[in-house]
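wait is this the right file?? whatever heres the structure
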């Protein structure tokens, strides 16, 4: 069955960096565009970044442009989100997403 497993979350100070990973299994990873979403407490889930199936096209929410980078390694069935210059407002649970499939999420907390 389709599985998406996020890792790499944690507690980081403002201005710091984290790299999230999403390990995919149960489907042909290279056939699917992928997304990172996040959900902060009391807020709706929002799309953070998207990447095409080949990795050639990426899109970002305005709030993370220039700070976050989405990438993928189709040979490893893994997607990444490099997050730099983190801000307290980036605090959220981050989810890996494919059409009709979600990971369990990984918590990112930005706080001093």
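ok assuming it is, sequence goes like this
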């Amino acid at each position: 069955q389709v599985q998406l497993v996020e890792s790499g979350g944690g507690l980081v100070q403002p201005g710091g960096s984290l790299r999230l990973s999403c390990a995919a299994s149960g489907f042909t990873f290279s056939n699917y565009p992928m997304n990172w979403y996040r959900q902060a407490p009391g807020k709706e889930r929002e799309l953070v970044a998207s990447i095409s199936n080949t990795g050639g096209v990426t899109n970002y929410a305005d709030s993370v442009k220039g700070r976050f980078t989405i990438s993928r390694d189709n040979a490893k069935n893994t997607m990444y989100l490099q997050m730099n210059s983190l801000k307290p407002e980036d605090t959220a649970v981050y989810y890996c997403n494919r059409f009709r499939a979600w990971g369990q999420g990984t918590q990112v907390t930005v706080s001093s």
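The chain has a mean pLDDT of 97. so i think its the right one actually
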